[in-house]
Amino acid sequence: MASYNFLKPYTFKNGITVKNRVVIPPMTETSAFEEGSVTTDELRYFKLHSGGAGMFISPVANVAESGKGFEGELSVADDRYLPGLTKMASAMKQNGTKAILQIFHAGRMTNSKILRGEQPVSASAVPSLRQGAETPRALTEDEITALIEDFGQAARRALEAGFDGVELHGANTYLMQQFFSPHSNRRTDQWGGSLENRERFALAIIKRVHQVAAEADRPFLVGYRISPEEIETPGIRLPDTLKFIDTLADQPIDYLHISQGHAFQTSLNDHADTEPVILKIQHQVAGRLPLISVGSVETPADAEKVMAAGIDFVAIGREMLREPHWVQKAASGDEAAIRYTVSLADLEELGITPALWHFLTVNMHADMHVTGAN
Ligand SMILES: Cc1cc2nc3c(=O)[nH]c(=O)nc-3n(C[C@H](O)[C@H](O)[C@H](O)COP(=O)(O)O)c2cc1C
């Protein structure tokens, strides 16, 4: 048995113990049914990829119909999804792996085609800077209140379906981030303007979702995913993020997941600053919450580097798609057998659907280390 630090268990303050520090980050498969239910293809993928990592965070699921961000997205917006979500939780919980449901609203990062004719909504009527972006409609106060409740109901469904927790998707430019961002949020009411007002939507969601966790008959994790910066001007900059994180660290959440392209990435905006963002965040949090770092981690040595920096968890995304037995191989000293490439011939064995393959190789331009034709 190898003695890597990432193989050590971790116990959260609510008593849930995860068997190791390796996390599969949320990776959408774009393979759900058109109406948002999980497909048997996805269930197969979950079973194949579960069992090694301590925590398996699901592909993102929308909490409301207006929050659908792309085709083939899972939904948790109604009780009708409970049978599928229950199968999903059980498929993701092989061999002691803990299953977390990531929940979100896409906000302006969608379009009226995906929303079947409806106009996207956001904090304000400001389109994103991506090509072809539609101008969203600003949410009313009543709609904001209803959406906060939608997050609460989504958490309740995750609990009923048997998940070990939920992750609030406050990252990757979606609605929770849109409320925090001075680019997408130009409101002049209590939900916009000052830093405190831009934090309000996230904090209200945390409060509502925590209520579900607190009333549950078993420990239930509430995680929060955040993107530290934006490149738009105006946009989210690190000093504001660190203040927000300081507030988040005192909220009733169980972990903070820092979404970046590289685990030790430096500032996207301040090129003179050479300190990795994750270390700034670690300093700010000062042990109040465990952190998950993600981004381009592939080898056991890469993962161990994250541990050596004192980060609690390491998430491994694309590499886990290629190698579902990464943890088992690292643990048994069979590292030479870890796969770092993927070819068309591997897709069936890996449970990668044609839709996910298309998403990976065409839409996302994700570097998947593909060998042969794709
Ligand atoms: C196919 C694919 C789908 C993704 N879907 C999601 C998602 O649903 N929610 C999310 O927060 N991040 C999503 N991400 C981002 C990943 O969680 C992760 O942050 C990113 O892939 C970087 O980690 P890696 O370098 O280990 O792959 C996705 C990434 C990929 C490659």
UniProtKB/TrEMBL annotation:
<keyword id="KW-0285">Flavoprotein</keyword>
<dbReference type="InterPro" id="IPR051799">
    <property type="entry name" value="NADH_flavin_oxidoreductase"/>
</dbReference>
<feature type="domain" description="NADH:flavin oxidoreductase/NADH oxidase N-terminal">
    <location>
        <begin position="7"/>
        <end position="333"/>
    </location>
</feature>
<dbReference type="Pfam" id="PF00724">
    <property type="entry name" value="Oxidored_FMN"/>
</dbReference>
<protein>
    <submittedName>
        <fullName>NADH-dependent flavin oxidoreductase</fullName>
    </submittedName>
</protein>
<dbReference type="InterPro" id="IPR013785">
    <property type="entry name" value="Aldolase_TIM"/>
</dbReference>
<dbReference type="InterPro" id="IPR001155">
    <property type="entry name" value="OxRdtase_FMN_N"/>
</dbReference>
<keyword id="KW-0560">Oxidoreductase</keyword>
